[in-house]
Amino acid sequence: MRERAQLSLPVVEAGIGVLFVVAVATAFAFGVPEVGVSRHAQLDAYAQDAATVLGNEAPSHGESTRLAEVAASEDAFDREADALERRVDRILPDNLMYRVETPHGAVGFVRPSNVAVGVAHVPTGSGRVTVWVWYA
Amino acid sequence: MSRAQANLPALVVALLLVTTSVGVTVGLAASAFAGADADPADARLAGSLSERLVAADGPLSVRANVLSRAAVENASSDSLPENASIRVRLGGDPILEQGDPDGGATMQRIVLVVDAERRTFEPALTGRDAVTLPRRTSNATLTIDPRPGASVTAVRANDRVVLHDPGGLDGTYDIALARYDTVELSFDASRDLVAGSVTVTYRVETTTKAVLEVTADA
Q1: Cβ–Cβ contact A15 with B under 8 A
Q2: B76 assigned to some structural domain
Q3: Topology of the domain comprising A35-135
Q4: Reported pTM
Q5: What ipTM was assigned to the predicted interfaces of this complex?
Q6: Contact B37 A35 (CB under 8 A)
Q7: B192 to chain A nearest CA, in Å?
Q8: What pLDDT, in 10s, does the model give residues B41-57?
Q9: For the CA atoms of chain B, what is the radius of gyration?
Q10: Which of A16, A105, A106, A124 is the most exposed place for a label (fewest CB within 10 A)?
């Protein structure tokens, strides 16, 4: 009988065992809370603060607040988008990037998918305005 | 038989592999548990204190996320929780200090700082008996002193009646306005008012942005 080259069974078992153990190890590597204020809590606070400040500011023309004004209509958004962008840029610390989305369009940067992002939602009379911030 | 014997070295290698990976994992877990902060008192304190300071009814606030410059300059550490070292900085300058926090957790918040002052002007009241306030403001003080023979019966802010007295208004009145609108005050008077009949004092806010930094070491 010709001997066939067989993969040794104990090595296969060991391989599966190692996989299980590594799975447990990754849980420890990623799942432990960080020391101090977490990145997420800080970013959410930044987003919430920016939204609160914008949400309480007087509008330049109509509506009740600056955010309600940009969310109100297409025309209002087109008119106020640049002013809104400048304002958000001024309010946020320099190490943050942002995106503000209204029902009629968005200002700011394209949101990356691979970084921690803080988010805040502000309801307005004509739809929801969302503020995202992340570290540059 | 040769087949069963050939498995022995493989078994040794397999055991070695499993043992090593278990050892590495246990080491990783031990260091993760040692480094983890299961009771993050510092972060909790920094977070809740910063939330309190920027709240609309906070000790230094005018509105949510808007601090008053005057309140910031007179801030006292009485409102801080005891038994913790806390430092609060606004735009880099310490405004509140209790103990000397060594490390601890730091939370940053974005705030506006308001310098409020009151400005007074006497509208000329040529033509219509109306005046538009130069700035949006939340309140104003009117001093009405009509010339003899004239009397002011009502004052409207954007068509809303804010003061009314059929017998004639005379004196100093505080009126509340909407901060979000440009306000036009119009006066119902028995005769054309002349300059000096009305003095308007209104609140002017100058805001600057700043970062409020709360460091807590419980």
Answers
A1: yes
A2: yes
A3: Beta-Lactamase (3.30.450)
A4: 0.76
A5: 0.75
A6: yes
A7: 32
A8: 888 899 999 999 999 99
A9: 34
A10: A16
